[in-house]
Amino acid sequence: MNGATLAEVLAAARRRLAEAGITDPAGDARTLLMGLLDLTPTSFITEGDRALGEAERQAIHGAIARRIAHEPVHRILGRRAFSRLDLTLSPQTLEPRPDTEVLVDALVPHAERIVRATGGCRILDLGTGTGAICLALLDLVPGAHGVGADLAAGALETARRNADINGIADRFETIESDWFAAVTGVFDIIVSNPPYIVRSVVGTLDDEVRLHDPILALDGGEDGLDAYRAIAAGAGDHIRDNGLVAYEIGYDQKDQVTAIMREKGFSPIAAIKDFGGNDRALLFTKAAVL
How far is the CA of 12 from the CAs of 17, 64, 78, 148, 234, in angstroms? Predict the structure, then answer.
């Protein structure tokens, strides 16, 4: 389509996605074009009659082909918004999901309280991936400092890049570690969005997840709870008095994860549901809850 306008290219992209059976062809086409052309929602509308160049049209054509092959939209773009951040993605990282923001939001008041009381707040993010959780907390709580731990060196490289992009690098460091294996010191908050999918279920996940998210970040073991056991076993040695341990969980794991934590001396203080009404985040403290 030589000399096609933005509006015409958008319409063609939407048609291709719809014909391929993509669930939200209009939304995906819009997100891809806005991202590829670096447009705001306003400019996307006002520049509808702008003629696109050959290179722009080819980039869009290739992106639509990748989406038809069920590659996720934000994987194609290589980045995703999370909280107030713009995060780059890599093959070694999960794509941050909006539901994880409820965990961040639940922790912000606690981190702010700790900063007011002590002058700082030290956060450990286990399995940090893109750094999404830790970096969002540092962005929202200026007095906080964070450590992102991950077993994947590529994930740590991505997290450091995201810290730099978002202006938080001076308060964030990374460490290559299998949970607590290489971690030293104590923290006010330990947080994790660990792998929690039952191993037998991983192979049945949608192609968009199974083929594009790293298996290391998905496979939670035979019952999906291996990571919670590992973190619960080591958290007591790395948490300050009255500190918090917080998790993202699977929709049906609240009671099991709570039991694992109680066995190690932690008491639940909050359970948060996601935007779909499912249990999504749990907060625990080592101190006894009256």
Answer: 9, 10, 23, 42, 54
